[in-house]
Amino acid sequence: MTLINEKKVTLETEIRNFLTSTANNFDTLKYLYNTTPENFVASQTPIYYSGPYWDNEEIVAIMKAVLSGQWITSGESVHKFEEQFSKQFNIKHSVMVNSGSSANLVMVGAVKKYLEWQDNDEIILSVVGFPTTLAPILQHNLKPVFIDIELNSLNFDLELIEEKITNKTKAIFLSPVLGNPPNMDRLLTICEKYNLQLLLDNCDSLGSTWQGQYLNEYAIASSCSFYPAHHISTGEGGMVSSNVKEIVSIVRSLAYWGRDCYCVGAANLLPCGTCGNRFDRWLPDYDGIVDHKYIFTNIGYNLKPLDLQGAIGLVQLKKFAEIDRKRRYSKQRLQTILEQYVEGIRVPNELPKAETCWFGTPIICPDRESKRSLVEYFEQNKIQTRNYFAGNILLQPAYKHLEQAANYPNANIVLDRVFFIGAAPHYHEKIFDYVEKLLIAK
Ligand SMILES: Cc1ncc(COP(=O)(O)O)c(C=O)c1O
Fold first, then answer.
1. In which band, very low, low, confident or very high, does the pLDDT at 243 lie, cut at 50, 70 and 90?
2. How far, in Å, from the CA of 203 to the mean position of ligand 1?
3. What single string gives the DSSP state of each residue in 98-156?
4. Which of 247, 308, 310, 413 could form a disulfide with 65 if both were Cys (CB 3.0 to 4.6 A apart)?
5. Is residue 230 flagged as an active site residue?
6. Ligand 1 centre and the CA of 119: distance in Å?
């Protein structure tokens, strides 16, 4: 035991020494992503819309995970991250996967199986959003039913939902726009009235609350992304969370080849498995002994993350409160500047019961030309901008066969008039001053 501990201390010390001795390289990493005030040169340093909020602690975690040689693929760090994530966001169970898109894919598949939804059952969602909120509905033979957006928050218009509900409607799939929730009281009332489930794509809204509760607490299941633009990042990565143990078990099975075995982390090494019955008569149509690790109860995928991603996640969770506070602050500062100096634009606000952990700072322009010129001005001056994702998704080649985009007039203004800049946690006063001067000069 002492020996192992000594070895771990030595490894960590060696990693830290290595990082210190190559400090210049790691300054570059900081420069790229953290844009520290010391490194910031107005008009030259790019202001990324987001990026991993990492420092040497994440690098130490990655190197320790790899160099300890204990796990390469999902192991103890992923397992600990799943447990810590659940605890931190007040949810009972979570499974980590390799992306937010994978999380949506297995979440929809698991809830469909658990609730025995049939092919062509209907799922309601916004017509504006990210493609892999929609894609899993189609991939699991369900039918998307689209709702147009309202122009205050850009979320789907809650007043248009009821007219789209049929006896085949099973769920409403919410994906809050850049983290900002719609009126959750109204949404939950609709769900209750029509006996619908609430599914949550929480990829952009991790940490956002409604009446003091995380949004994931209101949903039967929620997904999350750890791509670098998101609130916490593990490089790539995602999570599915639910209070329903069976849903999360199906999620794990779907992400792990469809297997029945539910050993996680170190339990994978138990001779008799977590079930205590690893070698048994598992197959009803075969009378021999079979290893539970090779029993397949679902038609699955392999969407497992690497253990080093779990190790990064554990470090990131410790920073979440700081990230949350800084994202809210960045959005507020940029909103004040934008509203003061750019005529005619609007930046959506949160509703009184919401506290939004902003993914970005949305900007609604008065017309197509003002968006074009503002985007061009920002980009030319090193401030990254982004579209609000796909815009009306029915304009996109992959989805245009589903329905006429013209049926959703508000959604059609998104490509014309909406874009966003960051609300990143690494922004600082020099950046805010620079943006302000830039907009005064426009
Ligand atoms: C709302 C939403 N859902 C899903 C995803 C997909 O996440 P990932 O890039 O981790 O696959 C994203 C990505 O940015 C997103 O914004």
1. very high
2. 6
3. S-HHHHHHHHHHHHHHHTTPPTT-EEEEESBS-HHHHHHHHHTT-EEEEE-B-TTT-SB
4. 308
5. yes
6. 25
Q: Which residues line ligand 1 (CB under 6 A)?
A: 99-101, 104, 130, 132-133, 175, 201, 203-204, 225, 227, 229, 238
Kindly indicate the confidence band of residue 2, based on its pLDDT and cuts at 50, 70 and 90.
very low
pLDDT band at 29 (very low <50, low <70, confident <90, very high): low
CA pair distance 180, 329, nearest whole angstrom: 15
Closest-lying ligand 1 atom to the alpha carbon of residue 175? 1
**Residues 243-266, mean pLDDT to the nearest whole number:** 96
pLDDT of 28 over the 80 cut: no
Alpha-carbon torsion 392, 393, 396, 402, what sign?
Answer: negative
Cα separation, 99 vs 353, in Å, equals 30
In the structure encoding, which two tokens stand for residue 219, read together? 């949903």
User: Ligand 1, closest atom to CA 132?
Assistant: 4
Quote the ligand 1 centre to 101 CA distance (angstroms): 6
**79, 93, 230, 426: which is the annotated catalytic residue?**
230
List, in order, residues 6 or more apart from 340 with CB less than 8 Å away.
none
Torsion of CA 15, 307, 219, 230, to 10 degrees: 50
| pLDDT above 50: residue 315 | yes
CB 165 within 8 A of CB 192: no
Tens-place pLDDT, residues 187-209: 999 999 999 999 999 999 999 99
CA of 225 to the centre of ligand 1 (A): 6
CB atoms within 10 A of CB 185: 12
Read off the pLDDT of residues 272-300 as tens digits, 9 standing for 90 and up: 999 999 999 999 999 999 999 999 999 99
Q: Which atom of ligand 1 is nearest to the CA of 104?
A: 4
- For residue 124, what pLDDT is reported? 98
Look at ligand 1, atom 7, and give the residue with the nearest C-alpha.
100
